Amino acid sequence: MTGTMTKRKKISLIGSGMIGGTMAYLCAQKELGDVVLFDVVKNMPQGKALDLSHSSSIADTNVKVTGTNSYEDIKGSDVVIITAGLTKAPGKSDKEWSRDDLLPFNAKIMREVGENIKKYCPNAFVIVITNPLDVMVKVLHEHSGLPKNKVCGMAGVLDSSRFRHFIAEKLNVSPRDVQAMVIGAHGDKMVPLTRYVTVNGIPLQEFIKKGRITQEEIDEIVERTKNAGGEIVNLLGQGSAYFAPAASAIEMAEAYLKDKKRVLVCSCYLEGQYGHKDMFVGVPAVIGGNGVEKVIELELTPEEKELFDKSVEEVRKLQKAIKALGLEHHHHHH
Ligand code: A3D
């Protein structure tokens, strides 16, 4: 499949599970480019690809969707989106659900994926979705050898979409007109920025004044946003959220492919911004044809900064745990 000359963009999805399959469907519906579904499970990605190919006839779009178990097929990809890994640690119940338990399993997978990106598509824009998100982005980045602007993580768009939805629902307005950001690490300590919420430019404060929403209701929305991933895990009974995560990652991929210069919260490499360096964490950034083109640094209040730093502290802890696994990048001498 890879030898064919094509002017279409190529999007490779590493992991063809719930989010991978949904992203492939969105790519086909939006005619974003040819899609390669990769998975370690035999036949499954090929089956999904065949099903998706048939949907193209009805959607009246023309993209090629293929499934594979061989990394060679991701050769020359323009975009790679990674969901490979586990959603729940073996032996843990729903009540004990934590993204951090996935670390030892998923870190090894990121190393493998990173090495194959380096080998087959070193010019790709890479979006990581696998949890625990921010540390997985770092592991992937190290093993892929890609420049920092070509690797980022999807979490902020999703967490912000949840925040926006709950506010829109409360105010009975379209979520499209609610601008709101969730920054920081993707975990229980993520930071929904209430102060920056607007409804088509109108500060949320105006709605509090008019009694359309109370501070207590906003506080509840902040808490529900932070726990939304767990709320869905408990309701589903197996696996975790996938529709909104897929839509979020595709929005980022589209911003890159079409050089849209969208302002989106992504897990980006920090080099001193927000007082942190040498780590990936969720911050607003401009996503365009050069990948992560600019990290936007907000002026946080001391309270907001404290919450941000606390969430970053979680990432640092996990980075230490990664070191203990001995998975760091070694220069191979062949
Ligand atoms: P799931 O449907 O289980 O799909 C994961 C796929 O990865 C499965 O098909 C596996 O076979 C495959 N896989 C396992 N090991 C490998 C490997 N070595 N190489 C290639 N593929 C492999 O899960 P999902 O799609 O629902 O979720 C995938 C990941 O996304 C999980 O880690 C979730 O925790 C994470 N997730 C993150 C967010 C964020 O906002 C960051 C949201 C939702 C889910």
UniProtKB/TrEMBL annotation:
Residue positions binding pyruvate: 99, 131, 162, 186
Catalytic residues in the record: 186 (proton acceptor)
InterPro entries per record: L-lactate/malate_DH, Lactate/malate_DH_C, Lactate/malate_DH_N, Lactate_DH/Glyco_Ohase_4_C, Malate_DH_type3, NAD(P)-bd_dom_sf
Oxidoreductase in keyword set: yes
Domain Lactate/malate dehydrogenase N-terminal: 10-153
Keywords, alphabetical: NAD, Nucleotide-binding, Oxidoreductase
Reaction it catalyzes: (S)-lactate + NAD(+) = pyruvate + NADH + H(+)
Top-rank lineage group of the source organism: Eukaryota
Binding site for NAD(+): 15-20, 39, 85-86, 106, 112, 129-131
Binding site for NADH: 18-19, 39, 85-86, 112, 131, 154, 186
Signal sequence range: none
Domain Lactate/malate dehydrogenase C-terminal stretches: 158-321
Listed SUPFAM superfamilies: LDH C-terminal domain-like (SSF56327), NAD(P)-binding Rossmann-fold domains (SSF51735)
Any GO MF annotation of the entry: L-lactate dehydrogenase (NAD+) activity
Record-level GO BP terms: lactate metabolic process
Gene3D superfamilies: Lactate dehydrogenase/glycoside hydrolase, family 4, C-terminal (3.90.110.10), NAD(P)-binding Rossmann-like Domain (3.40.50.720)
Family that this chain belongs to: Belongs to the LDH/MDH superfamily.
Xref: NCBIfam families: MalateDH_bact, PRK06223.1
Record PANTHER family: L-2-HYDROXYCARBOXYLATE DEHYDROGENASE (NAD(P)(+)) (PTHR43128), L-LACTATE DEHYDROGENASE (PTHR43128:SF16)
Name recorded for this polypeptide: L-lactate dehydrogenase
Source taxonomy: Eukaryota, Sar, Alveolata
